[in-house]
């Protein structure tokens, strides 16, 4: 696999920047649930970097989608009727329920008109009111529970056929979170099936994600320490119950507006840990992953995850991800940057820089804790 240094020897810095921009665009689209064809992105690049760009894009697809990556180059290009945004449909996807990754609308090319719509509908007893987020696997809706007269969050897989392994993966979050009772972990209320739709119902947390908040401002050192200590306490409670999160990142931490605290500038709220979709239980579960499969988000995953050592991941994997989050909150940057494949390789071979290099006023104790969390060897964390 080509690395940034090997590419630089055969392409100018400007051409390298074009490749990195294409990789960033491709990764961002995949995380929104869009399927951009690799060959389309490569065709926009200079001829002398297309081969290397193809390898980078394929590595990103493999890291994020696994076996689905092989179908990315065979895509049908469509326009979403409501927003006119581009949609790429891979060969095996259904054409009667296509989800636009830009606006979230669902439209079809075949089948009866009006079967699928964006108007509120019911799943089980829950009335779906508003789509809150869209990911590669599914969407989260604000929904109303008439039986208990309250709003809840309902997670649904993407429309279309869902295989049995995918359903098991979907319910993994519920099985893991159902074991946990902690004020800083978002509880799962129930799981269910309505016809061919499976769903998970959890508490609806008012507020923004830590990821969204970090795009607006940066917390001070004291506020950073408070937030990370609270998240660490919630993780410890999960670890004591034999649950390892394995996809800890700012996007999986909600900041409850009900407990906003403006002691250091902008109010940040109380952190609530959610989305145990990749969680691994210590016992009572057949391992669904295979050795060598990369699970998690590249920017925050541990070296052992980056190496595909899924059987060996334990609570120290979450400690590493917590260290990356601490680094980002202290400096405004990630310790390793670049395309996903480059990030994965860097964390396997390189030590992260000290946060004080990017933020000289970082307290020494916090910098020490941060680097200790991000030791490459799990036993040193």
Structural notes for this entry:
With 381 residues, the protein is α+β, with helices and mostly antiparallel strands. It contains 12 helices and 15 strands. A 6-stranded antiparallel beta sheet has the order 5-6-7-8-10-9, with helices on one face. A hairpin with a 2-residue loop joins strand 5 and strand 6. The longest helix has 20 residues. The N terminus is likely disordered.
Give a concise summary:
The protein has 381 residues and is α+β, with helices and mostly antiparallel strands.
Task: Describe the secondary structure blueprint for this structure.
Blueprint: H1 4-8, H2 13-31, H3 38-43, H4 50-65, E1 75-79, E2 86-90, E3 98-99, E4 106-107, E5 122-123, E6 126-134, E7 138-145, E8 150-157, H5 164-177, E9 188-194, E10 197-203, E11 207-209, H6 210-216, H7 221-240, E12 243-244, E13 253-256, E14 270-273, E15 280-281, H8 303-306, H9 315-331, H10 340-349, H11 355-358, H12 364-373
Antiparallel strand pairs: 1-2, 3-4, 5-6, 6-7, 7-8, 8-10, 9-10, 11-13, 12-15, 13-14
List keywords for this structure.
381 residues; alpha+beta; three-stranded antiparallel beta sheet; 15 strands; 18% strand; globular
Count every helix, treating DSSP H or I runs of 4 or more residues as helices.
12
Structural class: alpha+beta
Low-confidence stretches: 1-11, 67-77, 109-119, 262-266, 284-294
Order of helices and strands: HHHHEEEEEEEEHEEEHHEEEEHHHHH
Shape: globular
Largest sheet: 6 strands, antiparallel
Within the largest sheet, what's the order of strands? 5-6-7-8-10-9
Subunit organisation of the chains: single chain
Number of strands: 15
């Amino acid at each position: 696999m080509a690395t940034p240094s090997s590419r630089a020897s055969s392409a100018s810095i400007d051409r390298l920047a074009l490749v990195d921009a294409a990789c960033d665009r491709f990764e961002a689209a995949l995380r929104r649930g869009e399927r951009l064809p690799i060959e389309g992105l490569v065709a926009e690049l200079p001829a002398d970097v297309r081969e290397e760009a193809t390898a980078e894009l394929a590595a990103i697809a493999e890291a994020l989608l696994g076996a689905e990556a092989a179908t990315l180059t065979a895509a049908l290009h469509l326009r979403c009727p409501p927003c006119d945004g581009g949609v790429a449909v891979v060969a095996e996807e259904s054409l009667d329920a296509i989800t636009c990754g830009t606006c979230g609308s669902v439209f079809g090319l075949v089948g009866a008109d009006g079967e699928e719509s964006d108007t509120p509908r019911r799943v089980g007893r829950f009335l779906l009111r508003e789509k809150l987020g869209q990911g590669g696997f599914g969407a989260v809706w604000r929904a109303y529970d008439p039986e208990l007269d309250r709003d809840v969050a309902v997670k649904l897989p993407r429309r279309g056929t869902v295989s049995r392994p995918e359903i098991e993966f979907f319910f993994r979050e519920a099985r893991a979170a159902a074991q946990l009772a902690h004020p800083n972990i978002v509880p799962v209320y129930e799981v269910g099936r309505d016809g061919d739709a499976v769903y998970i119902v959890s508490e609806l947390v008012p507020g923004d994600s830590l990821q969204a908040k970090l795009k607006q401002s940066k917390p001070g050192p004291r506020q950073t320490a408070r937030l990370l200590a609270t998240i660490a306490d919630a993780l410890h409670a999960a670890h004591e119950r034999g649950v390892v999160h394995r996809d800890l990142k700012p996007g999986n931490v909600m900041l409850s507006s009900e407990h906003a605290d403006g002691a250091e500038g902008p109010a940040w709220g109380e952190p609530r840990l959610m989305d145990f979709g990749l969680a691994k239980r210590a016992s009572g579960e057949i391992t669904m992953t295979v050795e060598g499969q990369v699970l998690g988000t590249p920017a925050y995953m541990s070296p052992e995850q980056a190496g595909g050592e899924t059987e060996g991941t334990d609570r120290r994997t979450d400690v590493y991800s917590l260290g990356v989050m601490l680094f980002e909150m202290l400096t405004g940057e990630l310790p390793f940057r670049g395309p996903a494949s480059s990030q994965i390789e860097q964390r396997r071979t390189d030590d992260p820089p000290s946060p004080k290099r990017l933020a000289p006023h970082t307290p020494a104790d916090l910098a020490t804790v941060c680097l200790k969390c991000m030791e490459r060897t799990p036993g040193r964390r």
